[in-house]
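Fill in residues.
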């Protein structure tokens, strides 16, 4: 009797995880449709540079990854080549979304090549650390063996390491942005700077909150629940990164076509001291 009850409970848990993934994919597609006009206006027809490449990967590959992740949650393919392909695509999506944040952080730091090199090195180090930790350390909970999962529980729960390293990386980036904002741009009134900074804070807050919840779910909940937020995590990374990009472009357009000359565009964000001792930001060509 207890065995049949356990099977029914496991089925309900799996069903809940499937509903969560389908809901996340639906919300992602809805947001994509809402922001598609902004993409056509701000992205299409512009030259291909590193920023547009990173944006395109983050936006479109995330759609593919979300759909595949949702499909995998509905029809489990654990331990198959399909599962490993999804993991690879999802990792590329995370890297591209983090790439947009790196571009944003580097913009606040005046497009310094030294800062960019440090940010890229830090990102690569976190990727290596996440991969090594995932392969060397196993996470399991008492009772995991009672569930009928393929590959074992450690493979599934080890996804928490990716969330932890992503959270740490984004906290470091936001700390750098906050320090730069308070130290260098404290008295600067700029719509672009405010968008660059506050959009980033909102992005970091929600995505770190989701990652923290997802990490807790992966580590502490019964195995059937741990895939509940897989699609949501991939989708939100892309949604927030894309919205930051569009907001910056809209601010830049406002400044170039009707904004104040004392504003700044999305250029190097460098100060140009005037004789009266008031710093004014140079308005230069956008790099985004």
């Amino acid at each position: 009797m207890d065995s049949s009850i356990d099977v029914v409970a496991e089925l309900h848990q799996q069903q809940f995880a499937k509903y969560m993934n389908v809901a996340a994919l639906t919300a992602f597609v809805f947001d994509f449709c809402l922001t598609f006009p902004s993409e056509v206006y701000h992205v299409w027809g512009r030259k291909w540079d590193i920023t547009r490449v990173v944006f395109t990967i983050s936006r479109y590959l995330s759609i593919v990854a979300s759909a595949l992740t949702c499909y995998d949650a509905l029809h489990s393919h654990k331990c198959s080549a399909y599962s490993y392909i999804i993991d690879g695509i999802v990792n590329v999506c995370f890297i591209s979304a983090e790439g947009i944040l790196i571009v944003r952080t580097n913009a606040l730091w005046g497009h310094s090549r030294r800062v960019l090199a440090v940010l890229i090195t830090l990102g690569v180090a976190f990727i290596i650390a996440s991969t090594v930790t995932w392969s060397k350390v196993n996470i399991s909970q008492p009772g995991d063996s009672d569930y009928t999962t393929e590959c074992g529980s450690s493979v599934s729960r080890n996804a928490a390491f990716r969330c932890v390293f992503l959270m740490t990386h984004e906290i470091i980036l936001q700390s750098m942005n906050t320090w730069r904002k308070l130290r260098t741009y404290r008295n600067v009134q700029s719509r672009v700077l405010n968008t660059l900074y506050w959009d980033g804070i909102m992005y970091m807050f929600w995505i770190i909150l989701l990652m923290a919840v997802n990490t807790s779910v992966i580590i502490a909940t019964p195995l059937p629940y741990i895939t509940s937020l897989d699609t949501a995590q991939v989708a939100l990374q892309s949604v927030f990164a894309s919205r930051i990009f569009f907001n910056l472009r809209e601010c830049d357009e406002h400044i170039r076509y009707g904004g104040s000359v004392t504003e700044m565009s999305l250029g190097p964000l460098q100060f140009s001291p005037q004789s009266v001792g008031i710093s004014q930001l140079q308005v230069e060509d956008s790099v985004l």
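The chain is about 70% helix and 0% strand.
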